[in-house]
Design a protein that fits this description.
Distance between the termini: 49 Å
Shape: globular
Structural class: mainly beta
Number of helices: 1
Order of helices and strands: HEEEEEEEEEEEEEEEEE
Helix content: under 10%
Length: about 210
């Protein structure tokens, strides 16, 4: 089967976009999608590793934070590796996610499963319209019959890295709105993660 035919078979047209359902037996794959606002380019690399486990990497470019004068290609960039993203803890144990589906309906939606806890995880990635910020909306759905305790393994604000440019020192930060809570059966719980940048000394992006 040709590469084009394979791609057509893997991605299916839906009423609102396209979808690729994951078969845990298929070979690992990786793809990427970029979306841009006025203050950020948000690039997400997504796919599966061996056995169908979920892979996600986030890269953000902030075009207004120049690192070299008069060079439109010299913008402050931040690459966030998978191990820098806070883990999901359920009843005190770090969860392992298996990829279920990838959907593109104007925005990238990633669906994964935490099989041993009967949790469905939905992530939607998009850039802020004007702020220097990439946004990740995370929804947890308890598909089991037992309550579970959820916690995110990160403080509300984390410094990812610093850089220096034409406007001074730059700070890239990750913040989130997650709370330690009980996941009720068949009820969704939603929180957001924000990947922002600013000039040191200026207010953090809200």
């Amino acid at each position: 089967m040709s590469t084009t035919a394979q791609c057509t078979a893997q991605w299916q047209v839906t009423p609102c976009g396209i979808q690729r359902k994951v078969n845990p037996q298929e070979a690992p794959f990786f793809d990427e999608l970029e979306a841009s606002g006025q203050g950020v380019d948000f690039l997400v690399t997504y796919g599966t590793k061996a056995g169908g486990s979920l892979f996600l990497k986030r890269c953000l470019v902030y075009p207004t934070l120049r690192t070299i004068p008069n060079d439109t290609f010299a913008s402050f960039q931040v690459e966030i590796q998978p191990d820098q993203i806070p883990g999901l803890y359920l009843d005190g144990s770090l969860a392992t996610e298996t990829a279920s589906a990838f959907e593109i309906e104007g925005m990238l939606k990633v669906v994964s499963l935490i099989a041993d806890k009967k949790i469905r995880v939905e992530r939607i990635f998009y850039p802020a319209a004007s702020a220097l910020c990439g946004i990740e909306k995370v929804t947890l759905i308890n598909e089991g019959e037992q309550e579970l305790t959820f916690a995110l393994d990160a403080p509300p604000e984390t410094l990812i890295c610093r850089g220096r440019g034409t406007k001074g020192v730059y700070r890239a930060e990750m913040t989130h709105t997650a709370l330690t809570t009980r996941l009720q059966p068949h009820r969704p719980y939603c929180f957001h993660q924000f990947y922002s940048a600013r000039i040191a000394g200026q207010p953090r992006v809200q």
